[in-house]
Amino acid sequence: MMKRSLNFNHALCNHMRTPLQTPPRNSPRTLPRTLPRTPRFSPFGPLALCAVCAVLFLSACTQPSSGGADVRTPFDPDLYGWKTASWIPFDVADTLSGFAYGVYRGADRFVAVAKTGVIGWSDNGDIWFPAVKAPDSDPDNPAPDPFEASFNAVAWGNGIFVAVADGGKIARSDDGVNWTAVGYSGGIDGFGAENITGVAWGSGVFVAVGGNANISYSADGISWIPCRDANFGASQLNDIAFDNAGGRFYIVGDDGKRGWSDITLMKQANWNLLELSDASTAPFGKNSLRKVTVGRCGGGIGIGVVFDEWGGNRIFVAKDANFGDLDAGIDPGNFNGNAINAIAWGGDVFVAAGTGAMIGWWPDNEPSPDSQRYWRALSFPEFQWWEISALAALKDRFFVGNVGGKIGYSK
After folding, report:
1. Which among 161, 236, 293, 353 has the fewest CB atoms less than 10 Å away?
2. What pLDDT does residue 25 have?
3. Which 8-state DSSP code applies to residue 15?
4. If you ran DSSP here, which 8-state letter would residue 231 be given?
5. Does domain 50-135+143-410 have CATH number 3.60.150.10?
6. Inter-residue contact 323 to 248 (CB < 8 Å)
7. Which element (helix H / strand E) includes 239?
8. Do you find a cis peptide bond into 367, omega within 30 degrees of 0?
9. DSSP 355-397
10. Closest Cα partner for 244 from 221, 262, 225, 232?
């Protein structure tokens, strides 16, 4: 991977509360020394946002109780109205792969990561700045560059941002601006050189999942303790989510593998893995379960799962802890044949996104002829049909990022 350092001038963010270190000046890409007077848009240019009718949501769905890293507040997103961020440190070479929201010294802090090793931060979600390497404690023995990584996800908890990457690598930051490398020479404990594909914060720890069914947890993002359950076999685990209300972690992976655990059982490497007979039955079968999110719906849990099937992919919302009582199924036809890459929950609604800049949500107020509630989908016009690769509910908005380095958010 080509190193992509960013030349960053302190004048861009004099309001910052911590000193920043200027990266080397021999960067292949240089940011302007002053904040542009006009918004920076992506090379494919802005288009007018379409305006259609407002969306209503089922009153039965409720926001989870606060706790862990879930610092969102109840919000009512306008899913027909989306806006692109005014200024970002990403370009068309950057595929966005994850978002996180935290609080630093009482102020909002948004973070976005990319597969190309770039990390951006923002204090309002609209104007973004490039992150930098934290100052070396020993200049004569510099630490590894935290941006020499392919990031897959990021989470916030205990006042810390943790970004996970291929090769067992982790980048860590207290403020979202200054980052340090963890496990860049051999990978973190429990992973080695295996890819880390997902991370979540809950019950006082970060939990990372990835290749060869590896699972590790950490309270500080530095020291990691393996807690792999051998019953998962060698299947890759693709994603993890935490249910604040129920106090459980939920994981999904290849070969139809899925399961849950609470903090006590997890530290004992004990996960409630669904039996093989369950994993081989419809609708999940032995397919790859790629993304998972957890919300509260109908007075109980709602687990949104994106999985591969029939040469495309589908979504189901499960309404029990064992990924059963399925509702709100969707196949590629509902998204005009576009693939689904991500799913998130917030504001009493599940939102999914994928290729063709398609964004869909459930529940929706307009039932089908057979009285079933289906996902409603539309294309985000300012993304000009570029593939959406990342999606998250952060504080009071949904955020999306695409394969062309562009960020958008719901109004």
Report:
1. 236
2. 31
3. T
4. G
5. no
6. no
7. strand 237-243
8. no
9. GGGEEEEES-SS--TTS----EEEE-GGGTTPPEEEEEEETTE
10. 262
